[in-house]
Structures are given as structure tokens and as C-alpha cells.
Amino acid sequence: MASSSASSLPYRGRFAPTPSGPLHFGSLIAAVASYLDARAHQGAWLVRIEDIDSPRAVAGADVIILQQLRDHGFSWDDDILYQSQRHERYQQALDQLTASNLTYRCTCSRKQIKARGPYYTGVCRQRQRRTEDSSIRFLNNQPVLEFDDALMGRQDIEAPFASEDFVLYRRDKLYTYQLAVVIDDIDQGITDIVRGADLLTASSWQINLWRQFTERLPRFAHVTLALDANGNKLSKQNHAPALQADQVREQLQAAFRFLGLPEVPSASPVQMLEAATEHWAATHLP
What we know:
Its cofactor is Zn(2+). Its EC number is 6.1.1.-. The protein is globular and about 65 Å long. The protein has 9 helices and 10 strands. Helix 1 (25-40) crosses helix 9. By secondary structure, the chain is of the alpha/beta class.
């Protein structure tokens, strides 16, 4: 369960898109929710480009994303952080976990793991693999099985998932999202993580990692996902259409409606976000 220590610190939130293409409506919902929550708390709102998975990153997509945010009236309170520039920091964190005997090497392929069932079973825990052709996993001896979500309430995470020894460093020599996102949030002083519900269960892994580096834990709030006509999550992989620069006001109104907020006067995007912030505060703040 997340510590109450975050409440004693100035609010710092963030929006952290992956630059695999332009923002779509699902991305806009996450951006709006995180922004309104930060502004309703008179807090800071940061933007981070999560390009740690370099094969997925599309050249120039970050520039498009930042312009889309500006078009929709967003402003951020610190320099943009790029994960691709922080490999040394992630290695430092990985070394710290290894020194605490909380990692081990795994040579299992995805095919081998899938053949054993839906979850990794820890078969390499006792094998003392030394080969460089391996991933590095977190030794998940004390899994987080429950936590409180500010929007979705108490969450009980399925034990086989929460207990899985998740990957920190991939066989293709890339640091994983799970490691990078936690280190970034800690280093940037993030107190509140507002994002899509597709990351709800992964929060149990991330809380576990937070505990290895600091006593301070963030508050989590996950928003319902926007789905396409087939019931699939709107995503770049599912070819969700990009936000349109000539439909900014309509897209903002649609995002407000999706989040359960009333329609606001169709003014400038900045003014629309300000009006929506008041509705968010009335709805979600004590």
C-alpha cells in the first residue's frame, strides 16, 4: 500500500508518452487526467519522453508529441526528460539491486516461458547463470499484493502476476520500462502517478522497486481506458488515429466527457483546461 508520506510533499505529477508515433485520443485522456489532477492540487506537471525501448521509438515523434500538447493548451513545469539519455543512471540502480542480492540472470526464451504457463516460474533462480546472453530479473521474494488507487479504490493483484520475477534488463541489452519508470519518478520527485488502467497491475511491481530505493511511495490513480469499436485499447499498435490539429477543442471536450466531467465553454485550449480543472477539483478533491 502506498505510503502517506507523499501527502507531505509538494505535488509533482507527470505525463510520460512513448515516442512511437503521434498522440491519439487514449493518450489525450491520460494527459488531461494527469494535468487536471496536478493543477487542481496547485502542483507541478512534468513531461517525460519514455524512449527507453529504442526499437519502438520513431524518429521525430517526440517533436510531434510536444507540439500536440502545446496545441491542446498544455504547459509543463520543468525540462523534458528523455530516458534514452539516462542509461548510466539505470545501470547504477541495477548495480545497487545486484549488490543487495535482488537480481539474477535468466537465459529463458519467451517461447520457453510461454510453454510453462502464463507466468515466469523462476526456473533460473538457482542456476547461477553467468552468461552475458541473458536477461536480469528482480528477485521478487516479497510481492506487493494490494494497494490503494485514488480513482479505482483498493486493488488486489493476482498473486501469480504480483509474485513474478520481472525483467529489469533485457537480453537485447536494453533496460526495461519497469526499472526506468521507477528511477525516473524517484529522481524527478514525482508524488502522484495518474495514468491509464493498462498499467494498473504493473503498479505492484513498481511499488516493490520503489521500496528498494526509498521509503517514500507515490500515490497512484488509474483512469479507464478508451477502447476502439472492437473493444481493444486505443493504441499506436492498434493503429489508433492521431489527434488532429484542427479539432483541438472537440478533442478536449471529448476527453472531458470521457473522464466524467461536464462540457466547458469552447474557448482557447488553455481556458478550457482551466475550466476543466475546476470541475476535476470539485469531483475528485476533498
